[in-house]
């Protein structure tokens, strides 16, 4: 059985990815997270793109923990704000920002601009063995920001992200439904396919 590390401590991401990868790999892969392994210093996420950060995290943890590592970097881009918050999505309101403070700041920053506030969720996922990135994939979801949060599921900006053509926010979707269409789900499915083609996974 292959051991594969999901390089995150974000509980929301862990729930989503375990569900997705469990369905993809069944019993051939043991999926672990940073919560399951010895503490390792986190890499500095100073990349200018989602790809740079995803690759940096995957390489770092693969080297330190000697495992196949899967890492992603994802975030929200808003047209009216020139693509912000982008790679700073998780810390838009500061290093110790919460989902609530990030959402509040984003909505405040958007007040001067007319609606609709077009936006997209983007995820880049990378897989690495010690010393080399072996696969990378990108997923994208288009939608718009709404001024009042809706829904109790999900995390991050999900309650204020209205999906294009669905009439629901991301936070109004169940995990399985979200995984079928989400930017992260898209990226992970593409990444799994690349790993299978490369022979790393059965």
How does this structure look, described?
Helix content is 33%, strand content 25%. The chain has 202 residues and is of the alpha/beta class. It has a single domain, classed as Maf protein (Alpha-Beta Complex). A six-stranded mixed β-sheet has the order 2-1-3-4-5-6. Strand 4 and strand 5 form a beta hairpin. It is globular. The N and C termini lie close together (10 Å).
Write the layout of secondary structure elements.
Blueprint: E1 2-6, H1 11-25, E2 29-33, H2 50-65, E3 68-78, H3 99-110, E4 117-129, E5 132-145, E6 161-163, H4 175-181, H5 183-198
Parallel strand pairs: 1-2, 1-3
Antiparallel strand pairs: 3-4, 4-5, 5-6
Helix pairs in contact: 1-5, 4-5
- Major sheet strand order: 2-1-3-4-5-6
Cα-atom radius of gyration? 17 Å
Integer average pLDDT: 90
Helix percentage: 25-40%
Reported for the largest beta sheet, the result is:
6 strands, mixed
Total domain units: 1
How many β strands by DSSP? 6
CATH topology: Maf protein
Low-confidence runs: none
Principal-axis shape: globular
**CATH class categorisation:** Alpha Beta
* CATH architecture type: Alpha-Beta Complex
**What percent of residues are in strands?**
25-35%
In DSSP terms, counting alpha (H) and pi (I) runs of 4 or more, how many helices? 5
